[in-house]
Amino acid sequence: MQIGRGRGTPIPSMPVMSAPARRGEYGVDAPYVPAYMALGALALLLTAALSAALEWSAWSFFLSGALYLVASIALYLYASRVGKFAIWSEILDQLRLRGDERVLDLGCGRGAVLLLAAQRVPRGGAVGIDLWKTADQSGNSEDATLRNAALEGVRDRIELRTADMRALPFADGEFDVVLSSLAIHNITDAAGRLTAIDEAVRVLGPDGRIAIADIAATDAYAERLRRAGCVDVSVRSLGWRAWYGGPWVAGRLVRAKKPAR
Ligand SMILES: C[S@@+](CC[C@H](N)C(=O)[O-])C[C@H]1O[C@@H](n2cnc3c(N)ncnc32)[C@H](O)[C@@H]1O
User: Fold this and answer.
1) Class of residue 135 by CB neighbours under 10 A (exposed 0-12, middle 13-18, buried 19+)
2) What is the whole-number distance in angstroms between the Cα of residue 21 and the centre of ligand 1?
3) Which of 64, 121, 182, 241 could crosslink 83 through cysteines, CB 3.0-4.6 Å?
4) Domain residue spans in the chain?
């Protein structure tokens, strides 16, 4: 395990407050969102400048709107490029992995969470499945994830599959831990999202654990996990580091456990 290089191994019971050092390049989640916000900010700035030139009092209103959007973009990029890594380091530390688990990451993208998990299972392995959509993450591809795995020193510990999380190509009970970060909400219909939750439970073995971070539908995930027989189901806020533009698009964490047989 090689997390937080140069700063020693984090003590599991203490939260890691800063993001772990990363060598890979992980892109931006849903890159069209900050791009549209930047266009909006530019339009408002130009309108403010024009209003000021024409001596209209509304210039300050347009300028405030532009500054608001700039702050939202900064929060969004922080959450996507820094906050996610710090948060998932803490989540994974709290799972107190033994190091020999088989981990599955649903919608792994370029490997932000998959590779952090792989670094914590030196005697196990981590499998990532994805459809590699570039609208959901910039530069998303299997090759980009494999490159990142090599850069983070875990190429031999990971496996990637092209698959839809609603129909996982794995047998029942194959995994000890199932993770997912900001991916299940990308399934547009509620029934599809619940099918993904059912699949996560199916491939999890007895005593297996689930951790899902997402910006939408987290209460529905928790309810489905309870109905599927999971125990210790909880939902909590991930705080400002997971604000994708502001508190109205905030990440939450769902955790659950599959009972022992
Ligand atoms: C916002 S990205 C997050 C990627 C990664 N989990 C992370 O946190 O960096 C969402 C990912 O979900 C994937 N995805 C969307 N729908 C999917 C589906 N039905 N099955 C598998 N992956 C899916 C996308 O291709 C994308 O890689």
Assistant:
1) exposed
2) 23
3) 241
4) 97-257
